[in-house]
Design a protein that fits this description.
Number of strands: 16
Helix content: 25-40%
Structural class: alpha/beta
Strand order of the largest sheet: 6-7-8-3-9-10
Number of helices: 19
CATH topology of the largest domain: Rossmann fold
Shape: globular
Oligomer: single chain
């Protein structure tokens, strides 16, 4: 993935004694000590990160953590004290005013929490505001505004007034205004923070769906960790102006960097963070028409499993066989050399790789491993029930059953 935005060693200190404040930072002094000694406020401290093209990078932190200051430095609204902010090779932190204007016209748009729509302008005119500022002709403005409104599902309200729209719809107008200018980078500063919880979740889902088709590079600011975990390809957690941890949702929940992050993620619904892919193990299927019952049993013993999936010649799942059923069939003297078709179960649980664990709980409770399939119904992995329960409980997840449990089942099958 190509890097679209690269930030290196960015500091922002508000006040007159920035040199003294920087020196104290290097000496390890706290934000409070620096404020008391110099009167300067540390807004952002040594921020460094990369954002890939088409990636959603979420910056999460409480009020005063520095996240809004950071996002305003990315488009030059606030000048950094030091450091570099590279967008497609141009340093926004140190470029000329003309270069900065070009970056804002061609590369970046910003969506704020308070959408500030003009009450006497139509929805389309509000969506076209950024284009009007650029000097785009009226006909072209209208065309691009309507296209942006179509992307957010508001074409039918193009000629309505903002007062005729709900809060969520008004925020969509704000998003359309950002999209209408055709930005490559979208900066979103707590855009859903003023919305009711239900509408907020709808907007989050709509952003995810929109991103699948638009693939914009998005820097999203929030104080809500659940929102960060839902939206972010990568997440940065800020405290006192610095990054405490940067990683994927799974990395942050599984391995919090310190007690501060651990406190944040303690009550997170892990079932909404982790997916089938995160706990999936090797598929290791046997082929229909090729493997015998004894072959399948040997594979299970080698892998220490108590069930195994059977696939056809196109790697599509045909069924699942359990060690206990195979053992019983093998020792049935009335049916020597049983074939897998006679023993396998054709009613089995399946999941897609990106399916959340919260949706797999019922399937895991049935006791059979869950077949992870691709868009062509081919087997690509297997999720053991124990792995689902371990991940949901926050314990170390092992994708296979414990040796003791598997061994006991096999011993009982031979009795």
């Amino acid at each position: 993935m190509a890097v679209k935005l690269s930030v290196r060693n960015v500091y922002k200190i508000f006040g007159e004694k920035t040199g003294a404040a920087l020196g104290m930072l290097e000496a390890g002094k706290s934000k409070e000590e620096i404020l008391e000694a110099t009167g300067a406020t540390v807004g952002v401290r040594d921020a460094s990160f990369d954002v890939g093209e088409g990636e959603i990078f979420v910056v999460m932190g409480l009020s005063g953590s520095g996240k809004s200051t950071l996002v305003r430095m990315l488009n030059g609204l606030i000048q950094p004290t030091s450091g570099s902010i590279m967008i497609d090779g141009v340093d926004v932190a140190n470029c000329s005013k003309e270069q900065l204007r070009r970056i804002r016209r061609e590369k970046i748009a910003m969506v704020f929490q308070h959408f500030a729509l003009f009450p006497h302008w139509s929805v389309a005119d509000n969506a076209a505001y950024g284009l009007k500022i650029k000097g785009v002709a009226a006909n072209e403005r209208r065309e691009k505004a309507l296209k942006a409104l179509e992307q957010v599902g508001l074409t039918a309200w193009a000629d309505s007034l903002p007062s005729e729209l709900s809060g969520g719809m008004q925020q969509r107008v704000g998003l359309a205004r950002g999209l209408a200018t055709g930005p490559e980078v979208l900066l979103m500063d707590e855009p859903f923070g003023a919305l009711d919880p239900l509408i907020r979740r709808e907007m989050q889902d709509e952003l995810i769906a929109l991103q699948r088709s638009l693939k914009k590079t998005i820097i999203f600011i929030t104080h809500d960790l659940n929102e960060a975990l839902l939206l972010g390809d990568k997440i940065a957690i800020m405290k006192d102006g610095r990054f405490v941890q940067v990683g994927t949702a799974q990395e942050i929940v599984s391995n919090p960097a310190d007690d501060y992050v651990a406190a944040f993620v303690a009550d997170i619904d892990r079932g909404r963070v982790f997916t089938a892919e995160d706990v999936s193990g090797e598929a290791a299927p046997v082929k229909l028409g090729e493997a015998s019952a004894e072959d399948a049993m040997r594979v299970m013993e080698d892998l220490n499993r108590n069930a195994l999936y059977v696939v056809d010649d196109k790697d599509k799942v045909a069924g699942v066989v359990t060690y206990q059923d195979l053992a019983a069939a093998t020792f049935d003297e009335s049916k020597p050399d049983p074939v897998l078709e006679e023993v396998m179960l054709t009613d089995f649980p399946t999941a897609e790789a990106d399916q959340q664990l919260a949706d797999l709980y019922s399937a895991a409770s049935a006791g059979l491993p869950i077949a992870v399939t691709d868009e062509k119904d081919r087997l690509v992995g297997v999720v053991e029930p124990e792995a689902v329960f371990a991940q949901l409980s926050g314990e170390d997840a092992d994708a296979t059953p414990t040796e003791t449990n598997t061994t006991n089942e096999k011993e009982s099958a031979h009795v």
